[in-house]
Amino acid sequence: MVSATTKTSAFEASASFAPRPGITHVVFDFDGTLSWLRHGWPEIMLEIFLPLLPRRVGDTESALHEMMLADIYALNGKLTIHQMERFAERVRERGGTPPDPEALRQQFQDSLDRNIVERSAKVHEAKMRPEDFVVHGAVVILEKLAARGMKLFILSGTVEDRVRVESELIGVGRFFGGRVIGSKPRRTFSKLAHLEQILREEQINSSRLLSFGDGAVEIEATKKIGGLAIGVASDELQNGSGVMESHKRRALIAAGADALIPDYREPDALLARLLDA
Predict the structure, then answer these.
(1) How far apart are the first and last CA of the chain?
(2) CA 233 to each of CA 1, 9, 60, 189, 198: distance values in angstroms, whole numbers, following the listed order
């Protein structure tokens, strides 16, 4: 099923938005914010969930699809197991026997990994360019931020070793000077805790922090500490379409994003809006 998108401008400000000329540090989520290697992952998850979801009288497949996508995007940015646990709750609510969340997570990861291996191979074999798997305009915005002397970080719920390898594969790792933070196997992961750690270690206050993310978690965490949070409602089906994925957009608005963008088109105008430059 085609994921819904919403035509919007290249910059959609909320009532909370105000430019911050003093920004010195910028944090990016990875998947869906910089990297397009995992694009289409919500539909892969749905392929696992929908056959297991007990039906009720009056259910329609389109309504169930929408309900499950809302659940998935509401937890985007957290470790995948949280989405599996939420689905198990849905099954229980509908009178079914909840599946094992860890088994679901492994099934999803196996399917996703096959896609990533195929896409990575296309880059290694020069059948596709590295930039084909970078969210539209991201390289240019990274270049412009680096030229301004900004200190850039990646903060991702994806396993850190994978983020490091994939960021090099698609050509964006060079902008971060090793400042890549990801999850670690069998350890808890909190984007809020890592953002607070960045503030402490860099000895800056939150007025100097800008973050970009396509998940509710990083937006909520940035807002909680007082940073400027920009939601990237990137299209999962067509990179550079210029439209916002509607489920992602709603989740980012609910999380309190200061502004929304579909990708990084019009980089000079975007930086002018953000930094009042």
Answers:
(1) 42
(2) 19, 12, 26, 23, 25
| pLDDT at position 1 | 30
- Tell me how far apart the alpha carbons of residues 197 and 139 are, in angstroms, rounded to a whole number: 26
Q: What single DSSP character describes residue 177?
A: T
Task: Name which of 214, 245, 239 is nearest 2 in CA terms.
Answer: 245
Q: What are phi and psi of 28, to 5 degrees?
A: -115, 135
Rounded Cα distance, 269 and 136, in Å? 15
Both structure tokens of 143: 């270049």
| pLDDT tens digit sequence for 71-115 | 999 898 888 999 999 999 999 999 999 999 999 999 999 999 999
54: left (phi over 0), alpha (psi -120 to 50) or beta: beta
Domain definitions of the chain by residue range = 5-37+130-275, 41-124
- Output the pLDDT for position 7: 45
Which of 22, 34, 216 is CA-nearest to residue 141? 34
Give the DSSP H/E element, type plus range, for residue 119: helix 101-124
Bridge-based pairing of strands 5-6 and 12-13 is unpaired
Could you please state the CATH topology (level 3) that the domain comprising 5-37+130-275 is classified under. Rossmann fold (3.40.50)
